[in-house]
Amino acid sequence: MDRRSRQRITEGCIKGILFICASLSILTTIGIIGILIFETVEFFREVSFFEFLTDPQWTPLFVDKHFGIMSLVCGTALVAFIAMLVAIPLGLLSAVYLSEYASARFREVVKPLLEILAGVPTVVYGYFALLFVTPLLQVLIPGLAGFNALAPGIVMGIMILPMVSSLSEDAMYAVPMDLKEGAYALGATRFQVAVKVVIPAALSGIMSSFVLAVSRAIGETMIVTIASGQQPRLTLNPLVPIETITAYIVQVSLGDTPSGTLEYRTIFAAGMTLFVFTLALNLMSHWLKERFREEYR
Amino acid sequence: MVDEGVFSILKLNAWYGKKHVLKEVDMTIRANHVTALIGPSGCGKSTFIRCLNRMNDLIPDFRLTGEITHEGMDIYSPEADPIEIRRRIGMVFQKPNPFPKSIYNNIAYGLRIFGVKDKKRLDKAVEESLKKAALWEEVKENLHQNALTLSGGQQQRLCIARAIAVNPEVILFDEPCSALDPIATAKIEDLIAKLKKDYTVVIVTHNMQQAARVSDFTGFFMLGDLAEFDVTEKIFTTPANKLTEDYITGRFG
Question: Are A84 and A210 in contact (CB under 8 A)?
Answer without folding.
Answer: yes
